[in-house]
Specification:
- The chain has 310 residues and is an all-alpha fold.
- It has nine helices and no strands.
């Protein structure tokens, strides 16, 4: 393995690790602040914080596993190494942002409504599992690259960009909306079931951008594209999915705030939320269309392919 191939392990564990460590520090800070206000909840909040840190840690563990897999394969090429590293590194980076945000939201809700602490913790774990899917998508693509029968293809870089960038945006967006949902549950106990429904619906809608990235990554792999064509296709859906994921998460978060302020029109707000999410989703679909146009072209100048994706 050449010296430059160590870039992949650095990307895998470095990007995921930096995010996880910062996220764990932020959620622990929030927990300590609430413990200072509610000493009677010290034991419970300690349990929630340790559980939260353990769950967030998974993204760094994924990065560590991928890094060791890359280092243990002497046949890895530079593009394969970087592609695998980006796939889990960027997706893992997004997972930590989303997960620490929602855990911080759960701790805030427990502070506001201690009587609901067990319900809130249950929903917190559920939402973490849903956000975690973005990191798992990145892990799947990283393992597909590492387990390839041949590393002659230069398409691996595009695969990493496709799922890494899209997963980054989706995980952040899902964390933003889940954080708001938990906060609203703490304020509006009677609307917990409704907010749970809206949150699961919102996460399902936001998730589509990551699925687009996953589909494009497998499409790139199946067609054995050139470096520039694969990078162009990966960038097209990756950046578009990144924007759509974050944008949709912010949108759903705003809808929940509006519902909490005016529950009488919650049905209308929910309808408008779905409509606006569909409009934002168009951006990701544009990226998907261009990615397929690049991957399906029989003859395309490499720089044109890269430029089209960007």
């Amino acid at each position: 393995m050449e010296l430059v191939n160590y870039i992949g392990p650095w990307l895998a564990v470095g990007l995921a690790g930096i995010g996880v460590a910062i996220g764990q520090g932020i959620l622990a800070k929030k927990a300590v602040e609430v413990i200072g206000k509610r000493k009677e909840m010290m034991s419970f909040l300690l349990t929630v914080t340790i559980l939260g840190i353990a769950l967030v840690e998974s993204a760094a563990i994924y990065g560590l596993i991928v890094a060791f897999q890359i280092l243990g394969n002497a046949d890895m090429t530079l593009t394969a190494s970087i592609g695998a590293g980006l796939a889990i590194g960027l997706a893992g980076l997004g997972a930590w942002v989303g997960e620490w945000k929602l855990i911080a939201g759960a701790i805030w809700a427990m502070d506001k409504n201690p009587e609901m602490k067990w319900k809130i913790m249950t929903y917190m774990v559920l939402f973490i599992a849903l956000v975690e899917s973005a990191a798992i998508y990145g892990l799947v693509i990283a393992f597909n690259i590492i387990g390839s029968e041949s590393f002659a293809s230069e398409a691996f870089l595009g695969m990493g960009l496709a799922i890494g960038l899209a997963g980054l945006g989706v995980a952040i967006g899902e964390g933003i909306l889940a954080e708001k949902a938990l906060e609203m549950m703490g304020k509006r106990e009677k609307m917990v079931s409704f907010f749970l429904t809206v949150t699961i619906l919102g996460i399902a809608l936001v998730e589509s951008a990551a699925i687009y990235g996953l589909v494009v990554a497998f499409d790139i792999l199946s067609k054995d594209l050139s470096l520039y064509a694969a990078a162009g296709a990966g960038a097209a859906i990756g950046f578009a999915g990144l924007g759509a994921g974050v944008g949709e998460g912010i949108l759903v978060s705003g809808a929940m705030s509006a519902i909490a302020r005016n529950p009488q029109i919650k049905g209308k707000i929910l309808t408008f939320m779905v409509l606006f999410v569909a409009l934002v989703e168009v951006t990701a679909i544009y990226g998907l269309i261009i990615a397929f146009q690049i991957s399906g072209a029989e003859s395309l100048d490499p720089l044109v392919a890269l430029g089209a994706g960007l």
